[in-house]
Amino acid sequence: MNNLPSDRPPLRAVHRAIAALRRGELVVLAGAQPLVLLAAETASAAALAELAKLGSPVLLLAAPRAASVLPDRPVSEPAQAVAMIPALLTPASLRSLADPTAEQVFPEPPIAADAPAEAATALALVKLASLLPAVLAVPPPADAVAGTLLAVPSVDVLGYPLSLSAGLQRVAEARVPLADAPDTRIVAFRPGDGGVEHLAILVGRPEDVETPLVRVHSACFTGDLLGSLRCDCGAQLQTAIARMAQEGAGALIYLAQEGRGIGLVNKLRAYTLQDRGLDTLDANRALGWAVDERNFLAAAIMLEALGIRRLRLLTNNPGKVAALTACGVEVVKRVSHIVAPNGVNDRYLAAKAERLGHLLK
C-alpha cells in the first residue's frame, strides 16, 4: 500500500463534466484530438441541434452494443469503441441505438465510421456518469467552443477512478447496534469528488485481531434493502454480519458500486434483458458494459485506514482475492460464503459459477 500516490490529479473538472452529461449538456474532451460530447441517453432535441452546428457527429458505442446494431462490423475487444453515423439525429433514434431495452426504431440502419482517437476515453467518461455507454462526438472547429463549453482533460478522465480511491477520507464513525451484531460500529469514507460514501461495518474490534474475517460487499439496493430474490446479495450481507458476530469480530467493507459497478439504473435494464433470456454476464455486455466494472482499490485503502492489513476474506470469488492482493492487501485465506439458491436466483448463481468461476460448491 506504500506505493499509492501521495497527491491526486484534479477531480473537479471530471466531476463537473459527469454532472453536465447527466443533465444533457455538451462538454469538451480535451486530448490529442479534442471532441465535443453529448451523452446519447440524456440528449434533447435542443442539445442535438446545438451539437449539429459544430459539425457532423458520430455515435460512439461500446463494442458489445455496436455488434448488435452493426452485426457485420468486426469487433476484437469488448472495451473497443465503435463509431457509426445514425440515420436520424433524434432523441428517440439515439435511445434505440444505445439501449437494447428501449423501443427499437431503426428507420434506416446506421453507417459504420472510423472512431476518433479519444473514443475510448469518451466512453469511459460517460460510464463514470453511470449512463449508457453511448455518446455523440464531433471534433470542434478551431475557435467555435473556446471558453464557451465545459472542458475536461482526457488524462484526468483516465485517472479519475484511482484518484477517487486514493483521496478517500474517513469522515464519520458511530456505534450502530444490529439485530445480529449488537457490538457494531459504522465508519464512513468520502471520496474526493464529494460523491456517495463507502462504509465500513465493524463488528467488535477487528483491528485488534491478527487476521480478522473480512467481507468486501458491493452495494445492492434491490437485494440488501428490499430483499430481492433475483440475487444472493441480501442473504450474503446478513449472514456475513452474523458470522462475524459469532467470531466476536469482523469487518464488512460496503462499497458504493451497485450492479458490479454499472449503477442501479443500468442494473434494472440488465434485469429486463435477463427476463428476455440473457444471463447476468450477457445482459451487462448487451448494454455496453464489461461483466465487472468494480474497482477494489477503495476497499484496500479503507482497510489500511482501519488498521487491517492481514485478513481472511469471506468470498466465493477468486477474482476478488486476486484484485485485493494486487492492491496490497494480504489475504491469508479465502473463507467460503455459500448461500443456497432460493428458486428464483438459481440461474443467476449458475452463471456466476460456470462463467465467472465463483466457487459455489
Describe this structure in words.
By secondary structure, this protein is of the alpha/beta class. The protein folds into 2 domains: 12-161, DHBP synthase (Alpha-Beta Complex), CATH 3.90.870; 168-257 and 294-356, Rossmann fold. 36% of the residues lie in helices and 20% in strands. The protein has 14 helices and 14 strands. Strands 5-4-3-6-2-1-7 form a 7-stranded mixed sheet, sandwiched between helices. Strand 9 and strand 10 (198-203) form a beta hairpin. Helix 6 runs parallel beside helix 12 (297-305) and helix 10 (264-275) crosses helix 11. The model is unreliable at 1-8 (pLDDT under 50).
List keywords for this structure.
361 residues, alpha/beta, DHBP synthase, seven-stranded mixed beta sheet, 14 strands, 36% helix, globular
Topology of this protein?
Layout: H1 12-22, E1 27-30, E2 35-39, H2 45-52, E3 58-62, H3 63-69, E4 81-85, H4 91-98, E5 111-113, H5 119-128, E6 134-138, E7 150-153, H6 154-166, E8 169-175, E9 184-190, E10 198-203, E11 213-218, H7 221-225, H8 233-247, E12 250-255, H9 258-261, H10 264-275, H11 280-286, H12 297-305, E13 310-314, H13 318-326, E14 330-335, H14 346-356
Parallel strand pairs: 1-7, 11-12, 11-13, 13-14
Antiparallel strand pairs: 1-2, 2-6, 3-4, 3-6, 4-5, 8-9, 9-10, 10-12
CATH architecture classification name of the largest domain: 3-Layer(aba) Sandwich
Query: Structural class of the secondary structure composition?
Result: alpha/beta
Order of helices and strands: HEEHEHEHEHEEHEEEEHHEHHHHEHEH
Rg over CA atoms, rounded to whole Å, is: 22 Å
Any low-confidence stretches, pLDDT <50, length ≥5?
Answer: 1-8
CATH superfamily grouping of the largest domain: GTP cyclohydrolase II
